[in-house]
Design goal:
Elements (H helix, E strand, L loop, with lengths): L2 H22 L23 E6 L14 H10 L4 E4 L2 E4 L13 E8 L4 E3 L5 E3 L5 E2 L11 E2 L6 E11 L14 H12 L8 H4 L1 E8 L2 E6 L18 H4 L11 H4 L8 E7 L3 E6 L15 E6 L3 H9 L5 E2 L9 H9 L4 E15 L23 H9 L3 H8 L29 H10 L2 E2 L10 E2 L12 E7 L2 H15 L4 E7 L1 H4 L15 E6 L34 H11 L8 H15 L2 E13 L3 E2 L18 E2 L6
Parallel strand pairs: 1-14, 1-15, 19-20, 19-21
Antiparallel strand pairs: 2-3, 4-9, 5-6, 7-8, 9-11, 10-11, 12-13, 13-14, 15-22, 16-21, 16-22, 17-18, 23-24
Helix pairs in contact: 9-11, 10-12, 14-15
């Protein structure tokens, strides 16, 4: 064997032995080092929003006496069912608003007989009987009314309206929300012990659920309701409240403190004197839109405006609700907004500050009575027009309201679709005011134009009577400032005023003793607000004059009476928005108002809210039922947030 053969054989033997050893006993291996486990994601802390209110609600029962603070809380619990924004109506939990054009509302002739419940030509519910005056079918004015003879069959117009709920709505406790819950709400509202408005209820023939998502309202024959599309009662949870007598719901916690709703949040706790806590509603019907933006919501009570502003700057509040009286902090809020420490929001509301004129005091309801101011002191409308021209209302707006409001020409805001752009304007004009006073018989005596003018040839007013007027209002700071400016401007026209600052209880005391409702004043400044979006022409109709016959209840405290105004207002209120003459009728009331001036509009009241500088999607709408109508959309500093 050669050396080469020996080496090869030896090498082969070594390989074979190695192979046998390897097959007989595995070579130990080092286990792989395990990868570190991925930690679970850290849960994000719940997002929270704190809204500070000016007062603690006394109740959240929808038919209780609700403060603006209570309405803000209820906006988080309920949503809609119909919103009022930008002087219009929007369906929230309804598929759409009913209308004659979409077929959800119908108007048709109905045969009526003796004993049927109808609405008479005077607008009052009545049992049809001989002598009752009604509007027959197709008649909307007093020119075509008829007196029922008690024998024949007649036809009157009747309205029927269908409301369709969105599908699959639920209460926050998970129970289905159905049309029957709205019927239950109607039944609660109709209870005599519940202080809800009975106006529509008294004019309703029936309100019934056609199926789980459909409600039908039938008006009594003769009731033509311009706002028929709002005759849907906000649902209440029959499954929770039905066993409680309606008049006991005021005091039941389940209705007054922790009501369930269908809105974005659910009340979880109420600490009296401190706060109300809420959390996101897991059954919210808009949850698929990523709403609401916050997991937790707190309403904190801070009645003092200065303390509230300090709390917001310190981060204890994210939003100061308008229920906090912030109108005295306007200058400070504007400067803090400019410094980007917060964000103040100002909006004019349909609340009109007005100067009423005592055209006809109640003392003359039964004829002339010596010893009191004569009704003809303001009977000549030129005197009322002169007063309007001599009032520097713009100075009051610029000085007291920091220019945040405007001087109205009529009782309808310019933003309202039914505003009449052709009404008379009375911009501050001393010379024009003096000329009208001269024409009306109130003359300047001597060389001083600011000395009180005197009557010469004014019907029913003794010659030489000075033009000195009492000016009544409350002692609120804003009114003290405004009345001082206005009195000074009136003096430039030769109209002297004696300002009388009364406490609110005295000014608004019932008639006949109260100054306003007793119609015992020359000039009186106060505010008035409409209950709805339609122009409130009824404020100045003859039927609204407070007197003994109507127990001194009414808004026309000036005693103004105009058959033309009454007719135009009635025409508007008896028309439907779809009718061609609807807008024309309201425009006519505004035109008459601006010429006759039963009151002089001073300015629109300003609503104030304040938020942290990065709160977005907050929209303070002047016609919304609550400042938090879109609380589900509020957010803080996210991309796309405005």
């Amino acid at each position: 064997m050669s050396v080469r053969q020996f080496g090869s054989t030896f090498f082969s033997l070594i390989l074979a032995l190695t192979f046998l050893v390897a097959c007989g006993k595995p070579t130990p291996t080092v286990p792989p080092t395990p990868l570190p486990a991925t930690p679970p994601p850290t849960p994000l802390p719940p997002r929270s929003l704190t809204v500070c209110l000016g007062q603690e609600p006394t109740t959240l029962f929808p038919y209780g006496v609700l403060s603006s603070a209570a309405r803000s809380v209820l906006s988080a619990v309920y949503e809609g069912p119909i919103n009022t924004n930008a002087y219009g109506y929007q369906a929230v939990i309804l598929k759409r608003l009913p209308s004659l054009s979409n077929g959800d509302a119908q108007l048709f002739p109905k045969s009526v007989y003796v004993g049927d419940e109808v609405v008479g030509a005077d607008g009052l519910p009545v049992t049809l009987a001989p002598g009752v005056v009604v509007h027959p079918s197709g008649c909307r004015s007093d020119s075509c009314v008829l007196k029922y003879d008690g024998k024949s069959e007649i036809q009157m117009d009747q309205m029927q309206v269908t409301f369709n709920l969105l599908p699959d709505l639920t209460w926050s406790d998970g129970e289905p929300l159905t049309a029957d819950d709205s019927v239950y709400a109607y039944q609660v509202a109709a209870d005599p012990k519940i202080p809800a408005s009975k106006y529509v209820i008294d004019r309703t023939q029936s309100y019934e659920a056609a199926d789980a998502t459909t409600v039908q309202w039938w008006g009594k024959p003769g009731f033509i309701d311009p706002t028929y599309f709002t005759n849907f009662w906000m649902p209440l949870p029959r499954h929770l409240w039905d066993q409680i007598p309606a008049d006991q719901l005021f005091d039941a916690d389940i209705a007054a403190r922790t009501p369930v709703g269908w809105g974005p949040y659910v009340i979880t706790d109420w600490v009296s004197g401190d706060a109300i806590a809420l959390e996101k509603n897991p059954h919210y019907f808009r949850a698929g839109e990523g709403l609401p933006k916050f997991d937790l919501l707190t309403f904190h009570f801070i009645p003092d405006p200065q303390a509230a502003v300090s709390a917001l700057i310190a981060g204890q509040c994210d939003l100061l609700d308008p229920s906090i009286p912030l109108d005295g902090q306007v200058g400070l809020l504007q400067s803090l907004t400019a410094a980007k420490q917060l964000k103040a929001v100002f909006v004019t509301t349909p609340v009109m500050e007005q100067l009423a004129i005592g055209i006809r005091p109640s003392a003359y309801d039964n004829g002339y009575r010596p010893g009191v101011s004569h009704p003809d002191l303001f009977g000549d409308r030129r005197v009322r027009q002169a007063i309007a021209l001599c009032l520097d209302r713009q100075k009051a707006v610029d000085t007291v309201l920091f220019g945040l409001s405007s001087v109205p020409d009529t009782y309808v805001p310019v933003e309202d679709p039914l505003y009449n752009t052709g009404v008379t304007n009375y911009a501050f004009n001393i010379e024009a005011g003096r000329q009208l006073l001269e024409q009306a018989g109130w003359r300047q005596v001597g060389d001083d134009p600011t000395a009180p003018r005197q009557a010469y040839g004014v019907t029913g007013v003794p010659d030489g009577t000075p033009l000195v007027l009492d000016y009544a209002t409350t002692d609120a700071t804003q009114r003290v400032q405004v009345s001082t400016i206005l009195a000074a401007s009136l003096a430039q026209c030769g109209i002297k005023t004696n300002i009388q600052y009364l406490d609110a209880a005295s000014l608004y005391a019932p008639g006949p003793q109260g100054a306003l409702f007793g119609r015992a004043f020359n000039l009186a400044e106060f505010a008035i607000r409409s209950a709805g979006l339609e122009p409130p022409c009824e404020w100045y109709t003859s039927a609204e004059i407070p007197n003994a016959a109507n127990h001194w209840v009414g808004t026309n405290i000036s005693g103004y009476s105009s058959p033309a105004f009454d007719a135009a207002c009635q025409s508007g209120q008896q028309s439907l928005p779809d009718d061609s003459g609807y807008a024309d009728a309201y425009h006519q009331t505004e035109a008459i108002f601006s010429e006759d001036l039963p009151v002089i509009p001073l300015y629109w009241r300003v609503q104030v809210a304040v938020s942290r500088k990065d709160l977005c999607n907050y929209v303070l709408d002047p016609t919304a039922s609550s400042s938090l109508w879109n609380i589900a959309a509020l957010d803080i500093g996210n991309a796309g947030c405005q």
